[in-house]
Structures are given as C-alpha cells and as structure tokens.
Amino acid sequence: MVDLETRQEGDRIVIELCPGQPVELGDLSESFAALARMYERHYRKDGEAALKLHVTKLETGSIFMEIAPYGVIMGTIALMDGSVIVADFTSRLSRVIKAFSSGYQDTPEIDLPSIQDAQDIKEFVKPLVGKRGAALGVKHAKYTKTDGEKEIVVEYKFDESELNRAAININKIGLLAPAIEVGVEKKKIQKEVMLFLDQANRGPGKEKGRTGDKGIIPDIYDKPIPVYFRKSFQDLKYQMTKEVNPLTSAFVVDVHVQYINGDPIPKGYIVTDIHDVIPGSDPE
Fold first, then answer.
1. Residue 145: per-residue pLDDT
2. Does residue 127 sit in the same domain as residue 12?
3. pTM exceeds 0.90
C-alpha cells in the first residue's frame, strides 16, 4: 500500500474499481487518463490550467485510490481547498454513468452528457466492462482536521450489469448529434458572449429541429437567429429563464455558432453553458 498524507485535512474523490479478474495495464492507464481529461474539461477557468488531480492513497486488492486537487503555492505542490470541486466532480461522474446505465434507448427520454464526456466515461469504465462480478464505487470523502478520520459524504455504486449497459449505450452516442449540424461546413465555439433573446416560446429548449427561440449575440451577428440548447443534466433554457423575463434580460453564455455551406452569416446558436443571468427591467 502507498499512503500519501492521508491524515491531511481535506476532501477526496475515492474511486474503487473491482474488475473481478486481471486487467490489462494499458486499459488501466487509459481509464485514469480519461478521468483526468473529463476533470480538466470542466474545471479549467478562463483558459488557465485546472488544479491537477493527485493520487493521495493507493491500496492493493481491488483498485482503490483517493484523489484530490493540488496546486502550486510558492513553488511547492499543496493540497487545495477543493470541497466544492470534489463534490461537483463526484456527482458529475456518477450522473453521467447513471444516465447511460438507466435505460437510454434510440430515442432517449433522459438528458445526456456531451459527446466528449461520454467518450471519456467509456474509457474510464473499460477495465470493468464484460467482466463477471465487476463493480465500481465513487465516493466523496472528507478527512477531519481534529483526528484525521475519514467521513464519507456521499457514495455511488454501480454493478456489473449497470456498467455493461452504460458501455453499450455510450456506443450509440452518435445518435445524439443535433440535426442543425447536418451540412455544417464550419462550427465555431464562442465563450462568455452576451445573448439577448428576441423571441422565446413557453416550452423547453430544443436541441434540433424547428424552434420558437431566437436571439441576438451582438458580438457575432446583429439579427435574431434560432437558438438551441445542448441537452444536459440541467435544462439550460429553464436555468436561464426560471426567475427572469427572458425578453428583457441578458445572458452570458458559451455557444456553438453554426455556419452552413460557406455562408458567412450564422444560421443558429447552440447554448452549451451559462455563466451569468442579468435581469432586465420589465416595462410598466
């Protein structure tokens, strides 16, 4: 067993892989690399590098490890206050696996993660797929300052059948590509731009097809064009409009800008993330 500062106060992501039989070393390294990619993709801010995940404890038997976000302070690697990051990433990781293991069909009725997250989850669980008796545990653990004891804040468990279903369903991820992308010659990602909705219907946001939602992003194009919303575990449109008048408010968002057949005029925006909602004043 390798034990690195387990009694240091702080939060950890606890991963327990139980393959039930020998695992190829290459599959194991690719599994960990996929986990690191998914983490960095969601916790990198303003182009800066995310805090690096470090393994603070390894145990033999099943593959058991504790992971924590570390940063560099005065040239020294130090455990950071990562309670929010650990809680969010543990939940995100488990929700993605659950989404694919809990009944995804050709016409999904559940919100699904991005294609990148799905691909990385597929690599992460690969050492367990197709192995009798395999299981996965994902926990958020906290070490206390007073006595160094470990407290389990939340725990998620997945058995052999759930992991196998998730792997099968992830292979269908190609079905999720939105119809608006068909025939697209160029797709440009714009981060933290100001979106003003010019028209908004009362229904949930759509990811493809005809939509009654239209908006203007002045930094990109000065006329209203269709606005779509990438499917996620949270209804992005609802999160934007639940407490404000959508037609008088402004939204700071990340979008995919769609251009078709070389036309320099964009044909649509797909909202992929929300950074801020700025309420406007309703007319009296």
1. 63
2. yes
3. no
For 174: left if phi > 0, alpha if psi spans -120 to 50, otherwise beta; the answer is: alpha
Structure tokens at 127: 């050492």
270 is in which domain, residue-wise?
179-278
The model's confidence at residue 224, banded by pLDDT at 50, 70 and 90, is very high
130, amino acid identity: G
Picking from 224, 215, 228, the residue whose alpha carbon sits closest to that of residue 256 is: 228
Determine contact, residues 15/64, Cβ cutoff 8 Å. Answer: yes
- d(CA 268, CA 198) in angstroms, rounded, equals 13
CB 211 within 8 A of CB 256: no
CB atoms within 10 A of CB 157: 12
Q: Are residues 128 and 78 in the same domain?
A: yes
178 compared with 228, residue with greater pLDDT:
228
| Mean pLDDT of the region 138-154 | 73
* pLDDT classification of 195: cutoffs 50, 70, 90: very high
Contact predicate 68/53, CB 8 Å: yes
Query: How many C-beta neighbours within 10 Å does residue 247 have?
Result: 15
